[in-house]
């Protein structure tokens, strides 16, 4: 139970009675807090994931609702809220009519609120939290830290000294570094905010700005830039959204809020027709903008978000009749005023882009439309969700000419890796599917999106690089695959020399065509492999073994800095989804974003090649090894 509540169905920070002595109506924000809390408690209790997700989705939908949800229920006009079914709707009705919810009261009596906070520790899941609480009575962060430091946690089955060290590391990381949003999470928040603000009087458009527009892999605060001729209406709507936890600032040109369970969001306003310099200023980076402002001053102008203001010899803006302000509707016009070509947002990090622009050597960046196939995908045969056929048809509809099916190899038991016998069984299914695809293409009945050259499913595997450095399949079997993708999942804490030796063994194999997620990282939750990266780049370049830019937003591996260095050394890259279900095939777009940030051009990306050229490249590896 949460102490200090007169009415325990309300959040901690809300008064329960008005001056007149009656419970005040719950706002959309109040409801959102309550349903997020239910989702948290169910997670600690170990309920099925779909149940916890349902409550969190309901909370988000309620917070974004453009009307008073409780008022609608009280008036008998039961609203349709996306993601809210009958069961959750009944709970909203109970809250709206009684101010209480028996289900929430029961949950709060069963699970201390402090246990929910433990889920914020990176790498600590609900099952372990529940086990520690039930086994040792621990329910606070301080109590968990003390137990880990004292070596008490290892008394519990399945927990070890290593577990204690990881928990202490997670606590330190939590306290030292506020958790940032992954790029897909940030985009989802921004899209929901834009949808909630659509239709506001005077609003013409809203554009994500800041590090999200530059496609950084993690995002702290979010920035929105709105073009409107009614700023007061937009600020009022923005600051009163149900998902707003608190208003930080509210003014005529800017507003800032803190979202429920989310980041700070800054909303900047710009007059219609003057977006050029606003977009440049609020996209950043700060370092890029410093260089632009210096260039403007050299040309007699002061640059700010509001435009270019003419300055005198003393460097101060001119006034009176001599004053001059230049504004532009678009970014290309604003860059052209500085004598520069348009610089893509992904490049604006002050890493040589201004000099490259002046010397006409900005890269022609890769785009998703140029990808001809996906070279790293899974099916239900190993740790995927969907069948081979379902995954293949999804790729056909995306317009791919090929998909490489790369289910795990035998030693990765946790991922249900395939034995050689299962590999052969899978090969037969792929042959049958490809025959059917060819017949459909010939008959003109292929799914919409299938490219003119047709689609073929290529048989590959995600080959485990074992702890001893050996590859998981024999050479004869590896030679039978269309494409072999190798990766390292086990014994990650070996010394650098050993980890590098294992990776180089795979790169130098005549049968390995691609190293998947080479650093093995999980952003904000698992460190990179400690490799001799220069040795990896040199070997990959010499053998023509591609290095992957994995598009999973949890990985984005290779990271931008490594990808750019790999290209400098002469490596080929791929951009892949690592999809385990059809929805994850879209992950390639995050990989493309990071490739663009790394200045990657299409010719560097192996899977921009037509199918025949790709297979010819793969077939040529033995000769490259011998050379």
What is this structure's SSE topology?
Elements: H1 28-45, H2 49-64, H3 69-74, H4 86-98, H5 102-110, H6 113-118, H7 126-136, H8 141-150, H9 161-176, E1 181-182, H10 183-197, E2 203-208, H11 210-213, E3 218-219, E4 222-228, H12 231-239, E5 244-250, E6 254-259, E7 264-270, H13 275-283, H14 286-298, E8 301-304, E9 307-310, E10 325-326, H15 331-337, H16 353-358, E11 373-377, H17 388-397, E12 402-405, H18 420-443, E13 456-464, H19 475-478, E14 483-487, H20 496-507, E15 514-515, H21 533-543, E16 546-550, H22 560-569, E17 573-576, H23 588-597, H24 611-619, H25 621-626
Parallel strand pairs: 4-7, 11-12, 12-13, 13-14, 14-15, 15-16, 16-17
Antiparallel strand pairs: 1-3, 2-4, 5-6, 6-7, 8-9, 9-10
Helix pairs in contact: 1-2, 8-9, 13-15, 20-21, 21-22
Largest sheet: 7 strands, parallel
Cα separation of the termini: 71 Å
CATH fold call of the largest domain: TIM Barrel
CATH class of the largest domain: Alpha Beta
Number of helices: 25
Helix content percent band: 40-55%
Uncertain segments: 1-22
> Judging from the principal axes of the Cα atoms, what is the shape?
globular
How many structural domains in the coordinates?
5
**Binned strand content:** 5-15%
**What class would the helix/strand composition place it in?**
alpha/beta
Number of strands: 17
Order of neighbouring strands in the sheet with most strands: 11-12-13-14-15-16-17
Please tell me how large the radius of gyration is. Answer: 28 Å
CATH superfamily descriptor of the largest domain: Metal-dependent hydrolases
CATH architecture of the largest domain: Alpha-Beta Barrel
Integer average pLDDT: 91
